[in-house]
Amino acid sequence: MQSKRQLFLSHVAQTSDLPMMLEIERAAGVYLYDSNGKSYLDLISGISVSSLGHCHPKVVAAVKEQADRYLHTMVYGEFLLSPQIELAKLLTDQLPANLESVYFVNSGSEATEGAMKLAKRYTGRSEMISCYDAYHGSTQGSMSLMSDDYFTQNYRPLLPGISHIHFNEEADLAKITEKTACVIVETVKAESGVTVPQNGYLKKLRARCTDVGALLILDEIQVGYGRTGTLFAFEQYGIAPDVLLLAKGMGGGMPIGAFVSSKEMMSVFMDNPFLGHITTFGGHPVVCAAALATLRELLAQPYIKDVKHKEQLFLDRLKHPKIKEIRSAGFLMAVELGSFDLVKQVIANCVELGLVTDWFLFNDECLRIAPPLLISEEEIDIACRIVLEAIDRLG
User: What is the pLDDT of residue 352?
Assistant: First the structure.
């Protein structure tokens, strides 16, 4: 009889030739547990997904309760489904007045796709601009926003009319013109190895988009939901987008995404043609129930306001001669080691020592640290000791 490992390699599609292949049996809080009972402190939260840790009791209870009521009923936007409605209301209550209408989807890539369509339809323009070394998804449209030929060259032709600007470079803002439908940027660039806005860049970007009539779309798929120390990262920069993209931490471990805009903008999907954007499973009631419980818990508990203090604990404790720099935005941190070989070795050492970390898509010289928001100070101490020991083992 084949082992699970053999079946995994034979029948589950792989996206790299070096899968970690941890056989996870259960998870709770900040820990994963394998089939031998070994625990792993999860320092990446499933790539910024499990903000409330794994199997948070309130999220699990919400899933079970809704599953007993009803599952899928009808395609998005036709029936009045309480989990959808309550989530949309609570979410928009936390946002600026112009972000009042929520379109629920199943993932971050789908949120990007919907927002791209919305920008084209609302502005009547087709040109779109994104940043170099930014990631907004891997579907055909969202991948078209990537600048890196390594990831896109074998999937061409992609969408036309897309150009790129350098994040934080004011001179590049001149590339945004009256032909531009939208500019899509991450509020904090994640996969470049954590790049934060500087020198009022986002305010200048916002002003330029307003001047030429282009929509500003902020991608907070990875940096939203408290990860940077406020519920939404853009709150720290004194601006509001025309469209906000959300996913990852939104569902408490369940698959959900959303793009949020004004009712006026969203109304373009209602005619010419009607059903201008549709999804079968977007806004699934069980997933919305999980997301509602997640948001309620984030608003009720001090997890978000504690992020900056706990971020500093990591920064204070992760001192080592081989660490060249740590860039951070709350609980999204890039620990720079200088080479992919060193990063791979440290990741392997961490796994052996009972901790999971990773690298960044466009910066493989850095370790990713993005723990659940509820990680305790004691767990931070443990995590830092393991990372430092893993680096020490490099010799």
Answer: 97
223-264 per-position pLDDT tens digit: 999 999 999 999 999 999 999 999 999 999 999 999 999 999
Q: Are 346 and 267 in a shared domain?
A: no
**What's the pTM?**
0.96
> At which of 300, 331, 349 does a domain end?
300
Q: Which two tokens stand for residue 228?
A: 């940077």
Structure token digits, residue 135: 């990631």
Domain range spanning residue 296?
Answer: 57-300
Do 42 and 176 sit in the same domain of this protein? no
Query: Does 210 share its domain with 281?
Result: yes
DSSP symbol at 228 = T
Task: Let me know: does 355 contact 383? Beta carbons within 8 Å.
Answer: yes
Do the beta carbons of residue 164 and residue 132 sit within 8 Å? yes
Provide the strand spans (E) within 282-394: 325-328, 333-336, 355-356, 358-360, 363-369
Q: Give, in order, the Cα–Cα distances in Å from 34 to each of 28, 93, 143, 195, 266.
A: 12, 40, 33, 34, 45
Tell me how far apart the alpha carbons of residues 148 and 73 are, in angstroms, rounded to a whole number.
40
Q: How many domains does the chain have?
A: 2
DSSP state of 108: H
